[in-house]
Amino acid sequence: MRRLSGTTRLLCLLGPLTVAVLLAAARWGLPYVWHDPRLAWAFSRPCALKAWTGVPCPFCGGTRATVYAAHGEWMASLVMNPMGVLLVVGGPLLALWLGACAVTGRDLGLTAGDRILTGRWVASRVVIFIVALWLWKIALWLLLDV
After folding, report:
1. Which of 58, 91, 120, 121 sits CB 3.0–4.6 Å from 133 for a disulfide?
2. Nearest Cα to 34, choosing from 26, 25, 24, 43?
3. Considering the entire predicted model, what is its pTM?
4. DSSP assignment string, 28-73
5. Domain ranges of the chain
6. Which band of pLDDT confidence, cut at 50, 70 and 90, is reported for residue 41?
7. H-helix or E-strand containing 95?
8. 49: number of Cβ within 10 Å
């Protein structure tokens, strides 16, 4: 297993710190902002696609879904946007992996992960995921008016 350079170790350490800040914001920061009338105006605007067409985009409700998942309200998060659960569950796992790479100074699969993420088939899988997410949002919008 190859050793990581100092710069790569630092970048690996930034991963867990970023995840910690984002999860703390989802858990404690955003709910406070939403209920403060002086700050809520910044989050009360719908996305541009929904404002122009009335149809939700694949990422509509992502912030609220992440906040619901951070509070343990899994079903509400899944209904809002399945990506919220993915971020709250996958984020800490990714942070643990990057943290382990930073602490040990070893590769631990970063090179293999880089090869996988830069492969040509990844872009098509990402597009398929976004289309599936959009169909989910449109189906819920039509059925439940979410």
Report:
1. 58
2. 43
3. 0.72
4. IIHHHHHH-TTTGGGG-SPPHHHHHHSPPPTTTTHHHHHHHHHTT-
5. 6-144
6. low
7. helix 83-104
8. 14
